[in-house]
Design goal:
With 304 residues, the chain is an alpha/beta fold. Helices cover 21% and strands 33% of the residues. The protein binds uridine 5'-triphosphate.
């Protein structure tokens, strides 16, 4: 089965780091978020993947060289929203297709997710549904989709994983969205195309995805790091390490307190510092700093 992973976005909420890294390649718990996304897909035999690329596209193309599979890269020339990005990668055929966002990691059984005869939408319960695309259910089927509605009728948010039984039907719904110029927050949203499909009597089931890790904003990025982190480092005798801590290759930590929940990527030097609940990007050189709850780079003064 083919999967589409849109990774063209600017990732403005993770600036300044997304000026240097495509968001999907920012490291979490010791490796790029994209690797966490791909491994369970590959484990279930999904290796035919179309990446929608744009911002820092060459990084994604380069990164995928380490994997075997049928990968294609389609450029989204303008960042017009997720619906538009997905449309860029869709073809006119009657095969199923899986859509997986490039900034959300799922710990689920993809075979089970894709085993339905209906279209399937991954959902999570949230406290603040007005920030999300939301589903309204009737008899276990989706009755309506809402995108960032001020008073959504449920707290069941769309988590970022979608299974469609027929690529052509999705494609024509997004084409209609673009033709009718239906935008939310000035973007063509996939949720609004799904609402067009529902109105055409297309059936959608939902699939709870509680084990999901969003890496789109700093708070959830660090939450995901805390959840996915496993200890892996050599000894640093002059520093106190409070597990779990991951330290990459070619790093030197001296007279520092590191942890808990810290990821330090390759080629970092850290002296006389306290680092807790944070991710330090590669090639950083940090001295005499306290860094708590940050994604930090360079000398620690570049962070979000
Ligand atoms: P987001 O809506 O989080 O957008 O995209 P973004 O650009 O990555 O981040 P912000 O909002 O500027 O902080 C969710 C997923 O859809 C992709 C993104 O790359 C991300 O994987 N996307 C979004 C596109 O590929 N193209 C778009 O036009 C919008």
């Amino acid at each position: 089965m083919k999967a589409i992973i849109p990774v063209a976005g600017y990732g403005t909420r993770l600036k300044p780091h997304t000026e240097r890294y495509q968001k999907t390649l920012l490291p979490i718990a010791g490796k790029p978020a994209l690797d966490f996304i791909l491994e369970p897909l590959f484990d279930t035999g999904i290796t035919n993947i179309t990446f929608i690329v744009g911002h820092l596209k060459e990084q994604v193309i380069e990164h995928m060289k380490k994997y075997d599979g049928k990968f294609s890269f389609v450029e989204q020339k303008e960042r017009l929203g997720l619906g538009h990005a997905v449309l860029t990668g869709l073809e006119n055929n009657d095969d199923p297709v899986l859509i997986q966002l490039g900034d959300t990691i799922f710990d689920i059984d993809y075979n089970e997710f894709c085993s339905s005869t209906n279209n399937v939408i991954g959902i999570i319960e949230v406290d603040d549904p007005s920030r999300f695309g939301v589903v309204e259910l009737k008899d276990d089927k989706v009755a309506n989709f809402y995108e960032k509605h001020p008073n959504p009728p449920s707290n069941l948010a769309i988590s970022g994983l979608y299974y469609f039984t027929n690529e052509r039907i999705l494609k024509s719904a997004i084409e209609e969205l673009v033709k009718r110029d239906i935008k939310t927050n000035n973007e063509y949203q996939i949720t609004d195309a799904l609402q067009i499909m529902v109105k055409q009597s297309v059936d959608f089931s939902v699939f709870p995805t509680p084990n999901y890790y969003d890496v789109g904003v700093p708070e959830s990025f660090l939450y995901s790091n805390r959840k996915l982190l496993t200890t892996n480092h050599k000894d640093f005798p002059s520093s106190k390490i409070i597990e779990p801590v991951f330290v990459g290759n070619n790093c030197n930590l001296e007279n520092s307190i590191i942890g808990p929940y810290v990821t330090i990527m390759n080629n970092c030097e850290i002296y006389n510092s306290k680092i807790e609940d944070s991710i330090i990007l590669e090639d950083s050189n940090i001295a005499d700093k306290q860094i708590i709850g940050k994604i930090a780079a360079k000398d620690g003064s570049e962070f979000c």
